[in-house]
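Progress narrative, Year 2. Work on (diamondback moth) hypothetical protein from Plutella xylostella advanced from sequence curation to structure prediction during this period.
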Amino acid sequence: MKVKYASQVFSATVASNMGYLADKKILPEECKETADILLLFDKLFDSVNGSFNKKTRFAKPLLGPATPTSLHHKTWDEGRKILKTMKFVTAVGKKEVVPTINSWLWTMEGMEILFKKL
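Result:
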């Protein structure tokens, strides 16, 4: 899977449109929860893939550098709490944690360790 396609789907734009359409009853009410997860992953993508430039500095703070007071730490804490509760239900009804979720948890913990060391 290409990451660029995932980052297009798991985006703030898709999340806000999905939430809006669910509010207007065009999409089912459950889509609001999907929109929340899409927004979380958009924030997580930004927090680990950011770079500092003048165009994105104010629009999306998580694209900027991680600092002692930046939103990165709060985003990683919230992300870890949510991801630790996520389970996927298989076709036979078994609940499982997929490797992608564990990888995200490992990445966020690693980012915090790197931040403290650097």
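The mean pLDDT is 88. The CA atoms of residues 15 and 36 lie 7 Å apart.
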